[in-house]
């Protein structure tokens, strides 16, 4: 036993000498006694359960107080089983009578947060690669593993859930052994649920992951790997000290903006914040300056002291770059101010979220919102609906197009309705390098899909006999359209996808407008590949025809590229709009019906002379375009 | 004492609707307040019904007088149902006699009874004519047996000309009701029906598209897919066919669903509804109107009987229609009429919005440009089927 528990199985103390314990006192931890690591895992492969088990074993959380999955704080995350915001927990552990401080840095588990993952990895010397022994590795895990390996992290491959009847540890040990480059027998086997093998894993962390390196006497350089807004405390910033040290009540400086702040509090998390006398080199902890907006404490930025600060920031800082844009509109127009307030609040805690007001003839007042990716969009939208009680409609997600005109001007188009008029020389669109892992039986179907989405194959590898890694370069616009849903349905849910936007390409793209009686309906304009324009036009025209009620006159619906009509439907004029019988007993009822219809007309949107119930637009948008799906867990 | 509304001019007489809530069978499409059991308990039976109705008339008269309304004469009476002719002719006669003992009939007053071709005889019709009935409206619905079956109508279409002849022989005006748009009905069936109607040379025809209310047997059949919902355009085609053939035969429309051979054979009782006159509604579930006060009776005959036994008006609920709503009602009702309405009689037609909408509908051909020049708002022949849309546009 490494820890001492009392008769009620409650943690009392580490079974090491006081001298040893002093070596891991926060702010004064000996560098060689620090181990910084993270867990790379797919969302449902048991990372949180394993983390909870570690918190229990190391005594930082008493079992009876342990809330299941302690590290995932937000409700949505808990429900959806994903971790959006990482945190860092300091855990004491002893091996051979020596005390160690383990800092477990939780990493976001999804494709949209690659940059945040990269910063979490940069705060560590090692990573536990955690794979479900019944499922094998998934595409996003593989991508993060590659990222960790590029960062020279020590990888500890671990199979989890070995207690499950469906577990096939030998098969997956071979698979991940091959990926990491170790003998399958070196792959650890644990069960976060039962605790089996977890103590050994902690020992292994101490023995194999190197201690941090850094210059204790140099000016302080601390890397921000996370930043969270707390209602009571303001922004809580998570840092890893790379060089030097930080002490309370110092003035600190953010090196990207040169903004300086008073350090109000500094400490470690176990798993609640414990103020300390500072943080020394190699240590991981939090700091609070009283700022109210995570934009003032950006992930990847370097913190130094205002006086005698560092000259050079740490490498690797990037501004968050929104990649996917969607219009968010309140279904009830009077909710617009509430939507604005809600976005303002979310923005405090989400440095990647940005938006500007947008007005749509079809949908009224709303915002054009930029997201890191589809999951980010989905999470933000869901938080707006759930935490702020808003009913929203979102337009089909789009990407940033770089439109180069013949006259030499360049326009960045975030919204199809902003597409410039005039002669276009070239349109460039973002391209994503995509990794897809599929059982080999679905390789054909997956390749077919990628081809139809304008994918270029970059490579293919067998991870094991029956699992294949496919690498494609795909236009981001195709991915955000409905790629993921289609991939899932063509592979019976077995495929997993990771993508990373790398550069752009010129493509033969056109803007398709949908016109009602000659007037464009902005919410349905789309930028699509020329080969797919006709299909989009026909489909959307058909859909609008179904959804828009007949009017007192005939209404043509057209799809157009510029002034060229590529598809057309007609909504025939209504021919009978009169109640057949209206006698004495019907009058009150009919007048009340008329009142209702009057209210209904108020909610109609007028596109030219055509009255369209907003529900029609909503229906047309909701069963199309957005590949966001509600099951959350992506495989 | 609250201020009493100004009674309408004495010239505007009173109309009386008398509801007979009994049928031999309930038709699948019918959601009217009607009962097939002949013996409803608690004084609600058919046998006791005429007495109850007469008792209600006494109470309504007292109520009107207490409110300062004292009508000089009754201009129209309408027995509707249900199936009024399911009651013995003597019962109807007795109710009419009691009514006119309270308020006399005006000269040339119209007294209509609805009738099922199955439930009349030469003798019963003669008896009704003798009692003062002037007009008989037969629920013929269709001349096509398969359509009648879908409607659950039990009468043999062959009986209709016979019944019509009896009514004529008794000196009555004759109106025929038809329904179009029954599930499964073809346009040829509609044509056959309208041709059968013109062959009988009635004075008046009402043609209604079938409306399936939510709580009927037919609605359930449609939901289960046992019947197919008619296409809305079929309804328009059918209406146009009916209107064309009736008009070719010498009828003209005076209300969206009503056609008459001459001005004198229009249904004055219904016109009273559309022009906002006062009327009594006698019987369970019947509606009454008095100068903006609308009220409606309890629906169940037994409850109705019990309240009357207690000497209270069998009223279920009421509402007072405010000035603005009365204008909306007038527009909604009078725009159904071929004569239209005087534009200066409604404030709501004077707004900029109303003028814009009226212009729009003149452009679309739904409103009559020449009539507007003459200060009258009326729909064109083509605009008849779109009248509700015009109203919605103007009042929204």
TrEMBL record, chain B:
UniProt entry keywords in alphabetical sequence: 4Fe-4S, Chaperone, Cytoplasm, Heme, Iron, Iron-sulfur, Metal-binding, Oxidoreductase, S-adenosyl-L-methionine
Location in or out of the cell: Cytoplasm
Any one cellular-component term (Gene Ontology): cytoplasm
NCBIfam families for the chain: hemN_rel
Function: Probably acts as a heme chaperone, transferring heme to an unknown acceptor. Binds one molecule of heme per monomer, possibly covalently. Binds 1 [4Fe-4S] cluster. The cluster is coordinated with 3 cysteines and an exchangeable S-adenosyl-L-methionine.
Protein name: Heme chaperone HemW
Family named by the database record: Belongs to the anaerobic coproporphyrinogen-III oxidase family. HemW subfamily.
Gene3D superfamilies: Aldolase class I
A single MF term (Gene Ontology): metal ion binding
A biological process term (GO) from this entry: porphyrin-containing compound biosynthetic process
Protein's UniProt keywords contain Cytoplasm: yes
Span of domain Radical SAM core: 8-252
Organism in which the protein naturally occurs: Helcobacillus massiliensis
Keyword S-adenosyl-L-methionine: yes
One Pfam family matching this protein: Radical_SAM
Any coiled-coil regions, as ranges: none
């Amino acid at each position: 036993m490494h820890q001492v528990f009392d008769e009620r199985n409650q943690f009392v103390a580490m079974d090491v000498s006081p001298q040893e314990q002093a070596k891991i006192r926060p702010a004064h931890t000996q560098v060689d006694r620090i181990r910084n690591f993270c867990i790379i895992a797919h969302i449902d492969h048991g990372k949180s359960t394993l983390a909870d088990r570690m918190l229990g074993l190391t005594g930082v959380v008493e079992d009876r107080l342990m809330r299941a999955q302690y590290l995932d704080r937000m409700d949505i995350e808990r429900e959806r089983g994903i971790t959006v915001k990482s945190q860092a927990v300091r855990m004491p552990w002893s091996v051979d009578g020596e005390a160690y401080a383990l800092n477990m840095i939780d990493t976001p588990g999804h494709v949209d947060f690659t940059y945040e993952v990269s910063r979490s990895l940069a705060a560590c010397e090692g990573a536990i690669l955690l794979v479900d022994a019944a499922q094998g590795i998934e595409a996003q895990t593989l991508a993060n593993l590659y990222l960790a390996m590029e960062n020279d992290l020590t990888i500890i491959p671990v199979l989890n859930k070995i207690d499950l009847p469906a577990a096939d540890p030998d098969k997956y040990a071979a698979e991940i052994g091959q990926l990491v480059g170790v003998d399958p027998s070196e792959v650890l086997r644990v069960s976060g649920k039962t605790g089996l093998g977890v103590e050994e894993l902690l020992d292994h962390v101490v023995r194999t992951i190197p201690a941090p390196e850094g210059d204790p006497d140099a000016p302080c350089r601390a890397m921000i790997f996370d930043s969270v807004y707390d209602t009571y405390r303001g922004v809580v910033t998570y840092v890893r000290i790379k060089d030097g040290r930080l002490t309370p009540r110092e003035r600190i400086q953010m090196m990207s903006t040169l903004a300086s702040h008073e350090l109000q509090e500094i400490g470690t998390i176990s798993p609640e914040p414990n103020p300390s006398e500072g943080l020394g080199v190699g240590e991981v902890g939090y700091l609070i300056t009283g700022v109210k907006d995570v934009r003032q404490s950006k992930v990847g930025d370097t913190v130094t002291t205002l006086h005698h600060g560092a000259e050079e920031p740490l490498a690797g800082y990037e501004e968050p770059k929104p990649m996917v844009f969607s219009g968010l509109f309140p279904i009830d127009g009077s909710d617009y101010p509430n939507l604005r307030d809600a976005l303002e609040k979310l923005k405090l805690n989400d440095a990647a979220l940005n938006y500007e007001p947008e007005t749509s003839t079809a949908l009224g007042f709303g915002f054009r919102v930029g997201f890191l990716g589809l999951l980010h969009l989905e999470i933000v939208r869901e938080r707006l609906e759930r935490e702020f009680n808003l009913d929203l409609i979102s337009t089909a997600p789009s990407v940033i197009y770089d439109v180069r005109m013949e006259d030499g001007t360049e326009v960045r188009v975030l919204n199809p309705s902003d597409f410039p008029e005039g002669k276009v020389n070239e349109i460039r669109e973002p391209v994503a390098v995509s990794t897809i892992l599929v059982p080999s039986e679905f390789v054909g179907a997956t390749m077919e899909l990628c081809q139809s989405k304008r994918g270029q194959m970059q490579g293919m590898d067998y991870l094991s006999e029956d699992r294949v890694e496919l690498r494609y370069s795909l236009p981001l616009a195709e991915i955000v359209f409905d790629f993921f849903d289609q991939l899932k349905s063509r592979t019976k849910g077995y495929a997993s996808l990771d993508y990373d936007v790398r550069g752009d390409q010129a493509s033969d793209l056109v803007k398709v407008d949908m016109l009602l009686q000659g007037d464009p309906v902005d919410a349905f304009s789309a930028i699509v590949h020329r080969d797919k324009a006709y299909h989009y036009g026909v489909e959307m025209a058909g859909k609008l025809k179904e959804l828009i009620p007949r009017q007192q006159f005939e209404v043509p619906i057209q799809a157009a590229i510029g002034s060229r009509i590529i598809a057309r439907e007609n909504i025939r004029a209504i021919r009978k709009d009169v109640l057949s019988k209206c006698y004495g007993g019907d009058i009150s009822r009919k007048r009340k019906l008329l009142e209702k219809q009057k209210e209904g007309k108020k909610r109609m949107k007028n596109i030219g002379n055509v009255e369209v119930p907003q529900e029609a637009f909503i229906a047309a948008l909701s069963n199309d375009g957005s590949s966001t799906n509600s099951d959350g867990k992506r495989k | 004492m609250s201020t009493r509304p100004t009674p309408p001019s004495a010239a505007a007489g009173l109309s009386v609707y008398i509801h007979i809530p009994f049928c031999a069978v309930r038709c699948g499409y019918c959601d009217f307040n009607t009962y097939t059991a002949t013996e409803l308990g608690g004084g609600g039976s058919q046998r006791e019904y005429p007495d109850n109705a007469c008792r209600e008339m006494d109470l309504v008269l007292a109520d009107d007088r207490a409110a300062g309304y004292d009508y000089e004469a009754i201009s129209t009476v309408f027995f509707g149902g249900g199936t009024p002719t399911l009651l013995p002719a003597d019962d109807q006669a007795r109710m009419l006699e009691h009514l006119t003992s309270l308020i006399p009939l005006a000269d040339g007053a119209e007294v209509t009874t609805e009738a099922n071709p199955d439930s009349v005889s030469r003798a019963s019709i003669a008896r009704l004519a003798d009692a003062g009935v002037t007009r008989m409206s037969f629920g013929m619905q269709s001349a096509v047996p398969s359509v009648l079956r879908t409607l659950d109508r039990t009468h043999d279409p062959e009986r209709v000309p016979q019944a019509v002849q009896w009514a004529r022989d008794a000196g009555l005006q004759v109106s025929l009701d038809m329904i179009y748009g029954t599930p499964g009905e073809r346009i040829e069936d509609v044509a056959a029906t309208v041709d059968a109607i013109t062959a009988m040379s009635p004075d008046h025809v009402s043609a209604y598209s079938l409306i399936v209310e939510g709580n009927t047997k037919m609605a359930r059949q449609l939901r289960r897919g046992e019947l197919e919902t008619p296409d809305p355009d079929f309804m328009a085609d059918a209406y146009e066919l009916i209107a064309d053939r009736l008009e070719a035969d010498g009828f003209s429309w005076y209300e969206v669903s009503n056609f008459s051979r001459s001005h004198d054979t229009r249904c004055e009782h219904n016109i009273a509804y559309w022009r906002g006159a006062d009327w009594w509604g006698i019987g369970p579930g019947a509606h009454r109107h008095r100068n903006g006060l609308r009220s409606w009776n309890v629906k169940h005959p037994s409850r109705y009987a019990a309240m009357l036994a207690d000497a209270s008006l069998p009223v279920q609920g009421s509402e007072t229609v405010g000035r603005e709503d009365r204008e909306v009602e007038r527009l909604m009702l009078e725009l159904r009429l071929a004569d239209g309405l005087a534009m200066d009689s409604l404030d709501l037609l004077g707004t900029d919005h109303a003028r814009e909408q009226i212009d729009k509908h003149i452009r679309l051909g739904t409103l009559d440009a020449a009539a507007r020049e003459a200060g009258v708002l009326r729909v064109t022949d083509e605009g008849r089927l779109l009248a509700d849309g015009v109203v919605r546009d103007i009042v929204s």
